[in-house]
Write a structure and sequence with these properties.
Elements (H helix, E strand, L loop, with lengths): L4 E5 L3 H13 L4 E6 L15 E2 L10 H20 L3 E2 L3 E5 L5 H13 L6 E4 H7 L7 E5 L3 E3 L1 H14 L3 E4 L3 E6 L5 E5 L5 E4 L1 E4 L5 H7 L7 E12 L1 H4 L5 E4 L11 E4 L5 E4 L3 E2 L13 H9 L1 H22 L1 H8 L11 E13 L10 E5 L2 E6 L8 H14 L5
């Protein structure tokens, strides 16, 4: 019997977890991971805040909620088995205004439906028992929300793939995907000099997911619109004011959680991220501008419909991007002892936000099947948390489907 080859495009945490899962489930299968970068986990994975989400926010019964719960258990066990950092520092979601309290109550009920372990609603006087320097009217406390190092996890997944006989081919920008006469899939590099044949192909291209899926014959929607999230780092002398994670009550009309305080596994504390439209798919700086990307964004009707719905929020986020004082104004309501003078600008990440033509923000995981090709079209937060569960979900579908679809 000839050796089966399964290709995976994308060496972020979802792609690597998927490649690892396939190699574990189907020993002897040749698994090849392709990525245009020279290292793994360069983009969304490498710019992740490191939070292991417990499932507070997600609609009960959704793929997000199901895979998050499963993913946390798998990730915790994996980190402990491999000696990777995993710190259950806990999270507070804090209501600071009276109008946020009903939303906090709804969030608590949602967390209970999702069976978030240990989650409880706490009153004003209890907030400081959890976070002595935090302020608010009420909060939801998730004691088992954790932090980790997703780049280290992704690198460990890559080693697992190679240990199982798989291959990580970096520096391989995908230029063409086509069906061969024998039913296999040919993946050709952008310069035309490299080629692999795969019996099945999984696309986990993150920020490039819509473009790569189109190469395989998928439709245009949902479209990826890049949003840059900028962080501040709290100066070391003030980092001790935050024990774990302090979050605002999210606005259900908007997909981003709002600026929050996050302790990292190295002991530092970050504030952020905000959310502003990036001017390039990998636009980590305000000065990173891709005119072709801007033209594509401007030509997409979904962007204009989104802008009409959320222009006030967008304007506020842009002010915060330009001014540290404006950025920290909202954050100070949660930890009053940390202000603009106590932070410095840090790095930024770019989120692949999937958007429909009607301006709707695609919130759940989206996977399309195109014969022997499986395309992950949307893998938003908590994709890193859920990566091992997403990998199970994808591997099961890929291995059970016949190559012809």
């Amino acid at each position: 019997m000839s050796e089966e080859t399964i290709g995976v495009v994308g060496a972020g945490i979802v792609g690597l977890a998927t490649a690892r899962e396939i190699a574990v489930r189907r020993p002897g299968t040749r698994v090849v991971v392709l990525d245009k970068e020279r290292e793994v986990a360069v983009h969304q994975t490498g710019h992740n805040s490191g939070v292991v989400h417990a499932g507070i926010y997600y609609r009960p019964g959704s793929l997000k909620a199901t895979l998050c719960t499963r993913g946390v258990a798998l990730l915790r066990e994996y980190c402990r088995d491999r000696g990777l950092p995993y710190d259950e520092c806990g999270k507070l979601v804090v209501a600071v205004t009276p109008d946020e309290v009903p939303r906090l109550e709804a969030l608590h009920a949602n967390a209970l439906r999702n069976r978030v372990p240990g989650v409880r609603r706490i009153a004003r006087e209890e907030i400081r028992e959890v976070e002595p320097h935090a302020a608010g009217l009420a909060a939801v406390h998730s004691p088992h929300t954790a932090i980790t190092d997703y780049t280290a996890i992704a690198r460990s997944f890559a080693r697992d793939v190679e240990a199982a006989g798989g291959e990580i081919r970096l520096g391989f920008p995908v230029g063409r995907i086509r069906r061969a006469a024998d039913g296999s899939v040919e993946v050709i590099s952008r310069d035309g000099k490299s080629l692999i044949h795969a019996d099945r192909l999984v696309l986990c291209a993150g920020l490039q997911s819509d473009r790569v899926a189109r190469l395989a014959g998928d439709g245009a929607d949902p479209r990826i619109v890049p949003f840059r999230g900028e962080y501040m780092t709290v100066r070391p002398e003030k980092a001790g004011l935050v024990r774990g994670l302090v979050y605002p009550v999210p606005d259900p009309r908007y997909p981003f959680l709002g600026v929050h305080f996050t302790r990292r596994v190295d002991g530092s504390v970050e504030v952020g991220p905000n959310a502003v439209l990036a001017f390039a798919r990998e636009g980590y700086r305000l000065t990173d501008v891709d005119p072709r990307e801007l033209a594509r964004v401007a030509a997409f009707p979904g962007v204009w419909r989104l802008a009409r719905q959320h222009w006030r929020t967008g304007a506020r986020e842009m002010r915060g991007s330009l001014s540290v004082s404006a950025y920290m104004k909202a954050a100070e309501a949660y930890v009053p002892g940390i202000g603009a003078r106590d932070v410095t600008r840090a790095g930024a990440g770019v989120r692949a936000q999937a958007l429909g033509r009607d301006g709707s923000l695609v919130d759940d995981f989206v996977v399309h099947h195109l014969g022997p090709v499986t395309a992950v079209r949307n893998a938003p937060s908590p994709a890193a948390t859920s990566s091992m569960a997403i990998a199970e979900h994808i591997a099961e579908a890929v291995l059970e489907r016949s190559p012809s679809g």
